[in-house]
Amino acid sequence: MSSTNQGPAKRPLEGLTIVELGHSVAAPYAGLILSDLGARVIKVENPKGGDYARGWGPPFWNDVATAYLCLNRGKTGVTVDFTSEADAKALKTLILEEADGVIQNLRPGILEKFGLTPDAIRAEKPSLIWCDIGAFGNAGPLAAKPGYDPLAQASTGIMSVTGEGNRPPVRVGVSLVDMGAGMWTVIAFLSSLIAQRAGGSGAHLATSLYETGLAWMTVPLAGYEGAGDVRKPHGSGTAEIVPYQAFEAADGWMMIAAGNDNLFRRLCKAIGLDDLAQHPDYATNTGRIKNRGTLIPRIADKVSKISAVDLGKLLDEAGVPNAPLLSVDQVAKHPQTEAVGMLAPAVEGGPRLVGIPISFDGTRPRSSGSSPGLGEHNGTLTPKTGKTSI
């Protein structure tokens, strides 16, 4: 059992209330992080179908897509019909009287149409921290364009450095940009919360999928700006370091990360290629990058004759960073996954879901309870005035 699951979890955001006007991945993931950290997260959905992620399946568990379950566990769920003046008024009242923060990634124009803008609400409640997650940012020729994770991966260059050269484009297989935007939202929220508690007011925060994608492209864009270097995809490898990629062993694939000249020399010795270690073409990383085309086949040929287990042992003994390529089922059952305690059911008998990758004094904070059904908590949320409820 993992040491990160011992004893009661510290949840530093207990007492805070967040209203999540979100769908899909970005805003719900931000809400999930804040929920695990202790905040009460009220998820607001359209009564006509709710969060799009509810239908992202199979796979399903109890008729709800697992994509929805894993992003929304532990939240309170209500529905609001923005076309209803009463519903819009009730939501505004709830935000004004209960919320410390709002996270939203709705389509541009929806909130403005019903008077639920950050400027209007913060004029009445300056302490509110309002977080916008947009698609392409607040300015520029793409500002009004709707966006999803793969569009951001395509338009920020991520897909141009992913996959293999001279083959069709490949996207990163997880919602890297969506989840990253959610993380930036939490970072901004917590920064504003610190400032507020030091005597400041709230804030109107904003990030977008496009800006998040550009942030992930920090190294390739620096290379272009500094030297006009347009990076190409290198499969499992990278443009800046060689060898730093997956190699096929006799019975499986192994990721080998010889990230500096010393590690390269150790790699060569471990697999019996001592002659390459001091070869002038390969002795430095710069030389190895220039001569990638002749070096990689030499290493690949040698590695192909060694079993993955034996290769791992050889590299571990030599101090060369390495890891086997595991499938999803292998990762779920791996003893290291068990040891760090990232997977746990949100409800008894339910599927194990991934927690947030941080712990406090050895304990991982985690919200409890199932992901809410559509409108499950309608009628239970009454603002302090008692005049309106959702």
Can you offer a commentary on this structure?
There is one protein chain. With 390 residues, the chain is of the alpha/beta class. It folds into two domains: 17-217 and 344-354, Rossmann fold; 259-320, formyl-coa transferase, domain 3 (2-Layer Sandwich), CATH 3.30.1540.10. Helices cover 37% and strands 14% of the residues. The protein has 16 helices and 13 strands. It has helices spanning 26-36, 66-72, 85-98, 110-113, 118-124, 149-155, 176-197, 209-216, 218-227, 261-270, 274-277, 285-290, 292-303, 308-318, 328-333, 335-340, and strands at residues 17-21, 40-45, 60-61, 64-65, 76-79, 101-104, 129-134, 203-208, 244-249, 252-257, 322-324, 343-345, 352-354. The strands form four sheets. The chain has a six-stranded parallel beta sheet, with helices on both faces. It has a three-stranded antiparallel beta sheet with strand order 9-10-11, with helices on one face. A hairpin with a 6-residue loop joins β12 and β13. α6 crosses α8 (209-216). The chain is elongated. Mean pLDDT is 93; it is low at 1-7.
Q: How large is the share of residues in beta strands?
A: 5-15%
Structural class: alpha/beta
Taking all Cα atoms into account, the compactness measure Rg is: 25 Å
Number of helices: 16
Order of helices and strands: EHEEEHEHEHHEHHEHHEEHHHHHEHHEE
* CA-CA gap between termini: 41 Å
pLDDT average, as an integer? 93
CATH architecture of the largest domain: 3-Layer(aba) Sandwich
Q: Which strand order spans the largest sheet, edge to edge or round the barrel?
A: 5-2-1-6-7-8
Outline the low-pLDDT stretches: 1-7
Helix content: 25-40%
Q: Let me know the largest β-sheet.
A: 6 strands, parallel
The CATH fourth-level homologous superfamily of the largest domain: Crotonobetainyl-coa:carnitine coa-transferase, domain 1
CATH domain fold name of the largest domain: Rossmann fold
Overall number of domains: 2
Number of strands: 13
